Automatic annotation (TrEMBL):
Pfam families, A to Z: Fer4_11 (PF13247)
Main location group: other
UniProt keyword annotations, A-Z: 4Fe-4S, Iron, Iron-sulfur, Metal-binding, Oxidoreductase, Repeat
UniProt-recorded name of the protein: Formate dehydrogenase O beta subunit
Enzyme class, first EC level, given as a word: oxidoreductase
Entry keyword annotation includes Oxidoreductase: yes
Naturally occurring in which organism (per UniProt): Mesobacillus selenatarsenatis (strain DSM 18680 / JCM 14380 / FERM P-15431 / SF-1)
CDD domains given in the database record: FDH_b_like
Bound cofactor: record note: Binds 4 [4Fe-4S] clusters per subunit.
Record-listed [4Fe-4S] cluster 2 binding positions: C23, C141, C144, C156
Cofactor: [4Fe-4S] cluster
Length: 275
């Protein structure tokens, strides 16, 4: 099956937030009371129960003009996804469309996916069992895989009235992005296609009017080395040689030493933030 891409042209977005509403409605996600953000933005970032956020950015260009920039924010669905690499239960997995989904039945709430996502997209939702005991499950945008399987498009795409979002085959959407970039370069000299190679490319690509950092995005995101060590070395060796008990100890060691935000920051850029 061909791989598919959600193409987002931020220069066409008018900030209506219909994509947020459509995502909430289709996925039956609960409302989340949020503190006032000091602007028209409703949520600071995506959460376990808000998979789609419209970001509003006040930006002063090189000529001193103040402008509002908008960005539809959701999971990037990396081709080489850190969350898939580190998941010990294979709950995080690739779909037939090339996107990344979560099997909630397999998820044990370990949080490795949260700690290793280069975009800070994956979050843990809290639930209670019939006895009132709390447990956690990883949640994020699924690219509406249930809709894709029925031949429909993601809910956010279908509701976008400015055509800022489109969905189609990888080849088709990349061609659209290249064409659009050539059309806006005179107006936006810093415009670029955001499809980072460090994560194998993504299944949500952007045409940005400014550099990624202006939109709060990492300039060159990559799969953390800790994720590669776990998936390609520690996990297979532990399963082959150490047995279940020892493997659990290896997992605890890796989670403490490698799978933490502070460690990731030091590992990737010498102590500062990776963004």
């Amino acid at each position: 099956m061909a791989e598919y891409i959600k193409y987002v042209d931020v220069t066409k977005c008018d900030g209506c937030r219909a994509c947020m509403v459509a995502c909430k409605n289709w996925n039956d996600l609960p409302a989340e009371p949020e503190e006032f953000q000091g602007s028209v933005q409703s949520h600071a970032n995506v959460t376990a129960n808000t998979w789609n956020v419209l970001s509003f950015i006040e930006h002063e260009d090189s000529k001193g003009n103040l402008d509002y920039l908008f960005r539809h924010s959701s999971c990037f669905h990396c081709s080489d996804a850190a969350c898939v690499k580190v998941c010990p239960e294979d709950a995080m997995h690739y779909t037939d469309f090339g996107t990344v989904d979560v099997n909630s039945d397999k998820c044990v709430g370990c949080g490795y996916c949260v700690q290793n996502c280069p975009f800070d997209v994956v979050q843990l939702a809290t639930y209670k069992d019939k006895n009132g005991k709390e447990y956690k499950k990883a949640q994020k945008c699924t690219m509406c895989v249930d809709r894709l399987e029925e031949g429909m498009q993601p809910a956010c795409v279908t509701t976008c009235h400015t055509d800022a979002m489109e969905f189609g085959t990888q080849e088709e959407m990349l061609k659209k992005a290249e064409k659009r970039l050539s059309e806006i370069k005179d107006k936006y000299p810093n415009a670029m296609i955001y499809n980072p190679e460090g994560v194998g490319g993504t299944h949500t690509i952007y045409v940005l009017a400014e550099k990624p950092s202006v939109y709060g995005l990492p300039e060159k995101p990559k799969v953390p080395t800790s994720a590669v060590v776990w998936k390609d070395y520690a996990q297979p060796i532990g399963k082959m040689m150490l047995g279940a008990t020892s493997m659990a100890l290896v997992g605890a060691f890796v989670s403490n030493k490698l799978f933490n935000k502070e460690g990731k920051g030091h590992e990737e850029d010498g102590g500062g933030s990776h963004e």
